[in-house]
Amino acid sequence: MIHSFGSSRIRTLKTLVWRWPFLAFTLFGGQVLAGDAADDAAPRQDGDPVAHVESVLANPPATGIVVTLVEHDSQAEHHGFQPGDILLSYNGETPSSITDLIRLVQGAREKEQVAVRLHRGGEERAVFLRPGRIGMDGISVEQGKGAASRPPASAYTPDFSLFDLAKDEWYLFLRDRKKVGYERYRLQRDGDRIKLRVETLYALEKQMLEVSFHAQFRAQAGLPLEDLSFEERSPGGRYRVELARQGEELAGKVGEKDFRARAPADTIPTYLSALLAGTMPLESGATVHLTLFGEGNLTLYRGTALACRGREEVIVGGKKMSLWRFEQSLYGKVGNVYDLDDQRRLVRARFSTGVEIRRSTEAEISRELPTRLLKSLAAGE
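Above: the chain sequence. Below: its structure as tokens.
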């Protein structure tokens, strides 16, 4: 995954901050740190990993942070962290929350190594990490006190009319109400096969990041994925991912290297989240369970739910609108919020980091962008 500090940091920002903002704490320390080999002697949890995490959240055997996600090629992965483990202490202190864990990570930056205690299957073990980012997400718990998890899935018949309406959509990226990027979504339908093409321009630290994403999937329940490609271009270089569904795996190339990972049948890339919401009933409580795949960090987000919370009166771009609110969560922790209109088209996506995606028009964006950059958004025409 890692080729250089600059491109790695950009990919992490895109995938974790834009699409999954509650994972932003893993950014502390900058680059991904390769740890030592995992302790093979540690007991491993078998069976359904999602059911295991939910059982630990329902009845925590210890106080700490329940690990809900282990990022690909991170310290957590290299040291054998598993979903359902409980992080008991970091550098000798027990974190009371994710915010508190961030504080502990920041406070240990000057150390050569940091001791971490983990609880798994009734046993405790110690691992020693380098200072900086861990590469995990989690939920704080108290021993014997159950924590809420994702809402139950509901049965529904998908509505795919969105794919005939939203064929060419333009969006603005805003951070603290300032425009920082632009994105264009294009859909092409051939029977039940859908092709999605997304072109993105995003200003990051006074540099322009260009991203191209392509995917082919089916207009069926869950939007089953067939293949995808993802490319980031910046002054620091290029990063490209090309993967296809092969049975129970996603397989292909990451840069020049082969990549293969087991992926549940309900796995979709993060770019399809809002489209999946657009196939769901516009009624409070409608919920689907899924697994998200992070295109930039090659990580599977098991335990994800997408749920409709009903209609809300909101202000978007100075206009009062009545929109349908959909929440995307990981084991009950809300990340993205999507606001859809009555035609199921995305009007706005909101992230806890302060980034917002807002529907725009080609005419509005054309007035703001130089011709060279407009050509990037029109790539493939």
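The first strand starts at residue 64 and ends at 70.
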